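User: My collaborator sent over this chain with a note saying "see what the structure looks like." That's all I know about it. Can you take a look?
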Amino acid sequence: MQITIDVPDNLAQEVIDFVDFLKAKYTQTLPHSSLPNEVVSGLALSEQTLAKDWLNDEEDIAWAHIQHVR
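Assistant: Without extra context I'll predict from the sequence alone. Here is the result:
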């Protein structure tokens, strides 16, 4: 099913994220994971949104003092 709605540009991504959340919430099969559906859905749905804030030069600078030690 396709639905067309008039949404302001600044809210479009939020609406898409919510629809994706609902799709994931009602998907019952997750053979690749032992985590509850809600946890997997939340992780998957938040990744793209959080990446917008986290994957930038300002964040890289803020976290530059932490180095991986092997």
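A starting point for your reply to your collaborator: The first helix runs from residue 9 to 25.
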